[in-house]
Amino acid sequence: MGTRTTWTPVGDGEFFCPGCGGDRNYQRLSGQRRFALLGVPVLPRGATGPVVECAACRHHFGTDVLDHPTTTRFSAMLRDAVHTVALAVLAAGGTCSRASLETAAAAVRAAGFDDCTEEQLAALVEALEADTGRFTGGPCAAGLAIELHEALDPLAPHLAAPGRESILLQGARIALADGPYTPAERDALATVGAALTICSDDVTRLLAAARTPS
Predict the structure, then answer these.
(1) Which Pfam families match (predicted)?
(2) Nearest CA-CA partner of 148 in 190, 114, 180, 177
(3) What's residue 135's pLDDT?
(4) Which domains, from first to last, does the chain contain?
(5) pLDDT single digits (tens) 20-54
(6) DSSP single-letter state for residue 155
(7) Residue 52 burial by CB count (10 A; 0-12/13-18/19+): exposed, middle or buried?
(8) Long-range pairs, 101-107, Cβ under 8 A, ≥24
(9) Distance of CA 58 to CAs 5, 20, 29, 55, 70, Å?
(10) Cystine design at 159: which of 76, 148, 163, 178 (Cβ 3.0–4.6 Å)?
(11) What DSSP state is assigned to residue 157?
């Protein structure tokens, strides 16, 4: 005598499997517990699950595992975040110097936009500044803050502290490429730090550290 669980597929997709350590297909299963006599299920004992079953290792996980992005999705989120921060800092600076554009383009290419050029970034900044109400040369506008939070909020929970700090420091290096921080650049970088859930004291420390040559 005992209990057995029968599973019924109710969905599928791709997820990051903690057991395999990589992107895998999965099935979402709903279970029904039954009292078993001599191994034969006879009486229902109630529902269980749902669970997520990896198609590769067959291990079962709680459905909260689906909150973690796949490797492919995570790479895209990181790439978009660096691109958004670069544009925000360039736009906050008011003008795009060659040094700032070169630093920004290098950061964006390293994040995954292999064909990004200084000219493309300059054109994007001009278009964003022309779109009044979103990007201005003054303190961080509401539109700019929204853009940053949309790109960074979903990413922050999946990054360790060094990873979040790295994104902020990349923005700081872009701002410093053509001279000291302007008030608008500091404001934009403070918004980046807030979106990445970095406390204000750590933001101040990191921005100061970025000014010191390594």
Answers:
(1) TerB
(2) 190
(3) 46
(4) 2-66 (no CATH), 71-211 (1.10.3680)
(5) 999 999 999 988 777 666 656 565 566 677 899 99
(6) T
(7) buried
(8) 102/177, 103/173, 103/174, 103/177, 104/174, 104/177, 107/82, 107/170, 107/173, 107/174
(9) 15, 10, 12, 6, 18
(10) 163
(11) G
Total number of residues shown for the chain? 214
3-state secondary structure of 10: strand
Q: Find the distance separating the first CA and the last CA of the chain, reported in whole Å.
A: 69
Task: Give residue for tokens 């004992």.
Answer: 45
Stretch (H or E) spanning 54 = strand 40-54
Least confident segment among 55-59, 60-64, 114-118, 140-144: 140-144
User: Which residue has tokens 């383009």?
Assistant: 105
Instruction: Please state, in angstroms and rounded to a whole number, the distance separating the CA atoms of residues 56 and 50.
Output: 18
Q: Which residue, chain included where needed, has tokens 């003054």?
A: 138
pTM for the predicted model, two decimal places: 0.81
- The span from the CA of 188 to the CA of 199, in Å, is 15
CA distance 17 to 34: 28
With a CB cutoff of 8 Å and minimum separation 6, the contacts of 12 are 25, 26, 27, 28
Give the tokens for residue 197.
């859930």
